[in-house]
Amino acid sequence: MTGKVYLVGSGPGGTGLLTLRAREAIDAADVVLYDQLPGDEILSTLPAHAEKIDCGKYGGRHVLEQDEIEALIIDRAQKGKTVVRLKGGDPFLFGRGGEELEKVRAAGIAVEMVPGITSALAVPASVGIPLTHRNYASQVTIITGHEDPAKGESAVDWQVLGKSRGTIVILMGVANLPAIVETLINNGKNPETPVAIIERGLRKDRRVTTAPLKTIAAVARIAEVRPPAVIVIGDVVKLYNPDAPDLIPVNSD
Ligand code: SAH
Question: Among residues 2, 22, 70, 185, which is most buried (max CB within 10 A)?
Answer without folding.
Answer: 22
